[in-house]
Design goal:
Blueprint: E1 7-11, H1 16-27, E2 31-36, E3 55-59, E4 77-80, H2 87-92, H3 94-114, E5 118-124, H4 151-171, E6 175-180, E7 183-184, H5 195-205, E8 209-212, E9 218-220, E10 222-223, H6 224-236, E11 243-245, E12 250-252, H7 253-264, E13 270-273, H8 288-294, H9 302-315
Parallel strand pairs: 1-2, 1-4, 2-3, 4-5, 5-6, 6-11, 7-10, 8-13
Antiparallel strand pairs: 9-12
Helix pairs in contact: 1-6, 3-4, 5-7, 7-9
The structure holds uridine-5'-diphosphate (UDP).
């Protein structure tokens, strides 16, 4: 990986993907200020970095202006990964999710412009909603319910993209937009409600794997190291995007559950639970832009990625009671 040797402010740096971003940036010779409100992030995600003199952790909510934290060193780049990201989290925190997507994006953009820094927004495949075009290209404008149960996240991110482009067009800000598709790996919260942590936690405890609805809805899951490599390739490029970052290997949710059953060797059965409202039926990125413009594509196979993730959950994840059907909210 090319070294940029600069100071990077990572908002949301104590979250699942954010903590991996901080780690990669440090390992390639950059200095990192990680800003996180710890609403859904966790300090233990970056605890191994706290001793590094090139790393600084600041507990702060970017829904407030960054100038309210006077000691922040001017960054060369600002990467904004701050947001609740699992349906269970953003549905229990709807106003905070809208705030961090709107005010949080504005405050990080302002800070980047003030310091003439490159700004990277991590947007999401959720901007495509329940897509009518398949696979999803960056030109697709989406099929989003603006008042539905996912709207706090989808519309916050759509607004964040619009704001990022407004700063680019009106103020000449150096910006990039990454649309991140489903990502999994070590440091996902066992209780974040998403498919992969739920299935792994259930499989490891011998509980049934809760497949929502028919289980024929699809997702395309990308191992976190691949997602981070794509995101940082976009950061290093001069591209504005948006650019889809995800794994184009599409699978049904039932298939993901079966893979996890195989990898864990569990005897757990699959069980059906009610499907979620407005659950996207199909999701798969077209990554032609990332392949051709960034020279990036995912490398880690599903089997390999799941093995690494299961190992982490078995040894390192905070232990929580098995997730039952009754406790699932999304
Ligand atoms: N899902 C499931 N069982 C679970 C959790 C999720 O079948 O215990 C389904 C969910 O309904 C959706 C898919 O898995 O169809 C992916 O959900 P996730 O929450 O991981 O992320 P999303 O892609 O919906 O944001």
């Amino acid at each position: 990986m090319v070294t940029r040797d600069e100071h990077v402010l990572v908002a949301g740096g104590a979250g699942f993907i954010g903590s991996h971003v901080c780690e990669h940036l440090l390992s390639t010779g950059n200095r990192v200020t990680c800003v996180d409100s710890l609403v859904t992030g966790d300090i233990t995600n970056v605890s191994s970095l706290l001793e590094d003199p090139h790393f600084r952790f600041v507990e702060f909510d970017i829904a407030r202006p960054l100038r309210e934290w006077p000691g922040l060193e001017p960054p060369g780049s600002v990467l904004n990964l701050a947001s609740p990201a699992s349906p269970k989290d953003y549905q229990r925190l709807p106003i905070e999710t809208l705030r961090v997507g709107s005010r949080g994006t504005e405050h990080t953009l302002e800070f980047a412009v003030l310091h003439d820094a490159r700004f990277v927004l991590t947007s999401t495949s959720e901007v495509y909603g329940d897509p009518l075009e398949h696979p999803q290209r960056e030109t697709y404008r989406g099929n989003v319910n603006p008042i539905g149960p996912r709207s706090m996240y989808d519309e916050a991110k759509r607004y964040a993209e619009a704001l990022t482009m407004a700063y680019h067009r009106e103020l000449g800000a150096d910006v990039a937009i990454a649309r991140i598709f489903n990502t999994y790996g070590p440091r996902m919260r066992a209780d974040d409600g998403r498919m992969i942590p739920n299935f792994i936690t259930q499989a490891l405890s011998g509980a049934p794997l809760t497949v929502a609805g028919t289980g024929t809805q699809t997702r395309s899951v990308c191992y976190v190291d691949d997602t981070v490599a794509g995101l940082l390739a976009l950061w290093r490029s001069g591209l504005t995007g948006p650019v889809n970052i995800g794994n184009p290997h599409e699978m049904t949710v039932r298939r993901v559950a079966e893979e996890i059953r195989d990898v864990t060797g569990t005897t757990s059965e699959l069980t059906s639970i009610p499907g979620a409202v407005d659950d996207p039926r199909r999701r798969c990125p077209d990554i032609t832009v990332a392949r051709t413009e960034l020279g990036w594509s995912p490398r880690v196979s599903l089997r390999e990625g799941l093995q690494r993730t299961v190992t982490w959950f078995a040894h390192s994840a905070k232990s929580i009671p098995p997730i039952s059907q009754a406790s699932r909210t999304s």
